[in-house]
Amino acid sequence: MGVRGLHGFVASSCPHVCTVVNFKELAERHRSQHPGGTPTIVVDAMCCLRYWYTPESWVCGGQWREYYSSLREFVRTFTAVGIKLIFFFDGMVEQSKRGEWVKRRLKNNREIAKIFHYIKSRREQPGRNMFFTPSGLAIFTRFALKALGQETLCSLQEADYEVASYGFQNNCLGILGEDTDYLIYDTCPYFSISELSLDSLDTVMLCREKLCQSLGLHLADLPLLACLLGNDVIPEGMFESFRYKCLTSYASVRESCDRKGNVILAVADHISKVLRLHQGEKKLEEMLPLGPNKALFYKGVASYLLPGQKSPWFIQKPEDVVTLDKQVLSMSSDPESKQEFPMCMDSESKQKLPVGTDPEFNLEAPMCTNTEVKQEDPVNVGPEAKHQVTVVLDPEILKVARAQHVQAESYLVYSVMSSGEVECSNSLEDATDQALPSQAFVYRPVRQRVYSLLLGGGGGGSSTGPAVKEWFVYSGNPLRQPDLVRPLQMNIPGGTPSLRQLWLSQEPGIQAQRLDTLLACFDLSSSREELQAVERPFQALCCLLVYLFVQVDTLCLEDLHAFIAQALCLQGKPTMELADLQLDHIDPRAVQLATLLVRGLTTLVLVNGACGSPWEMADFMPWHLFDGKLFHQKYLQSEKGYTAEVLVEQNRSHVTRFHTLKSVVCKACGKESRPIVSRRHWRPHHAAPFIVFFGDTQAVQAESCHYFQDRVNKQVSHGCS
Question: Mind listing the pLDDT tens digit for each residue in 9-68?
Fold first, then answer.
């Protein structure tokens, strides 16, 4: 994340850039300087997840009660000293950063493979040095913070820009995160989350002014430096030869610095002593070897300009716009300046061309030769207007979806409707376990029905909605291109209601329609009565379990017992008791089953939001339904043949509920011709592998054996192209 090599350089060569500060003292000083104001810290939540996740266990699916307690303590500590926190989460992956996103996901795959190898060889969890965040952590953290009464926002572009902008425009006390891009933005002070001591509220402040003094630069030079070194927009290799030339001509090489440190010093020296001589007189492309990467480089530098800021490295035209060949790109973030974006219409779809269609520059603004359309400043209309294609034409519905997205009240809904492109990061899945399919495939039919609902292809007849681009991580997916996934028609008695009905209607009976739609997304309309009879919060869990067991025929009765028993035993169990729970050993299959369930809960967040929230979000938050170690314990016990009474810890009321929930799931699965049998009664075919085939198209076909093949492939083959 951030600028290549800058973190290590600051730590080793410029330690004076880092100053220990105390948040309580800073808050008191802020109040004295701004009477009546509240000291506010903008938190880059994505940078803080690893810090917040303090539970010892992490491979079993997540210790969600412990994690929730950790978040609550974090919030309480800052609230106690009068500091307000504003949390920002990544809501979109910008096209210019997709390559970096893919690179990190593939690296994560290699790390996950090492984790499973360790578990199989030692039957225990690896050390913290191999720590990987539990699946769904970022998604559920949003809802946890909202439940704790915190202002939580989801970005419409990369979160770091919105974090820096908010801090800059609202005179905030500072930014809390772990991203060297915050040393580049000219915004409020930047504090390190990794150096934070919650007991004392001491942390390290990284001072960009001191960094500039060390490098002989001005604050306005830092975006140029960042792009020449490489960041999330500019690939590191793009200016490798340029950096080498700077280093060879640099006369003040420090022996105390490593090669990367001296490269940074050399590039900064070139900026201050060579480029600055012609600043404002020559264009950057006349001074730097930009070549065909000119537009991308300009875009990279401009991406650091916050609202109202300009760069002295851009020769300003009267309109504050620099034209690059046939592309128009703003060189200013001044809200008073107009932004120009040439748009063009696809003769077939009659929609704006998708982002990144320019093969040379891969800019957000599409390239065309026909009529130009002038748009308002993206600061006013929302930054997503710069690079997204709206696929939903009802402005009121899109406005509602956008508001819910920004307020972190939904998941993926706005991405589907605004750009037709979604992503899901890595999950703790064993690539060598061919008996269990990836969660990406298991829940794809659900997503396809949601796409039908959101994109208007579900109003009777065959689905005609556009394909959605899915960047989902699973074994064997090189992520060179997205999977093109078409909507799948839903079967709802009386037809599929419109989004206006589901989201805006207050008519009697609409809540029943919302529930009907949710169940139809899981293809469980026939089990409505059974599921409705289940008490909260187990209604959502049973829905998810029925779907899982219908889809995956390698799940057995022992698995069902473990899922139900842990959910029942979790109710009322103290957090410390969960933290103290010890496991005999770690089973890799149980790790992957936990992943399947938790990713199912994130899918429920998507479906519930798309259907107008027929269920309370709290009903499928994991701290109410799932605990990783507790599930693992019940799984190991169930594998040994423990009775229901032992599984639910001899609690009589739990025994009754256990049999009730088991009966609901088994009956619903029976309606789908899916008997749930004990592993001891399995026939050999259950050990058959799960195989992924890649065809000539961008879409993915998934196949396995027997029931899973009959169930999933039939739906995927209808839904993918």
Answer: 998 888 899 999 999 999 999 999 999 999 999 999 999 999 999 999 999 999 999 999
Record the pTM.
0.84
Handedness of CA 176, 179, 181, 184 (dihedral sign): positive
Q: In the chain, pLDDT over 70 holds for what percent of residues?
A: 82
Rounded Cα gap, residues 442 and 434, in angstroms: 14
Residue 719 burial class via C-beta count within 10 angstroms: exposed 0-12, middle 13-18, buried 19 and up: buried
Tokens of 405: 């997205």
Q: What are phi and psi of 330, to 5 degrees?
A: -70, 140
How many other CB atoms sit within 10 Å of the CB of residue 128?
9
Query: How far is residue 514 from each of residues 465, 506, 531, 578, 609, measured CA to CA in Å?
Result: 21, 12, 14, 35, 10
Q: CA-CA distance, 205 to 190, in Å (whole number)?
A: 6
**Helices and strands of the chain, counted as H and E runs:** 32, 16
* Distance from C-alpha of 311 to C-alpha of 303, rounded to nearest angstrom: 11
**DSSP letter string, 231-266:** -SSS-GGGGHHHHHHHHHT-S---TTS-HHHHHHHH
In contact, 4 and 230? CB cutoff 8 Å: yes
Q: Measured between alpha carbons, how far is 10 from 178 in angstroms, rounded to an integer?
A: 13
For residue 42, report the phi and psi dihedrals to the nearest 5 degrees.
-90, 125
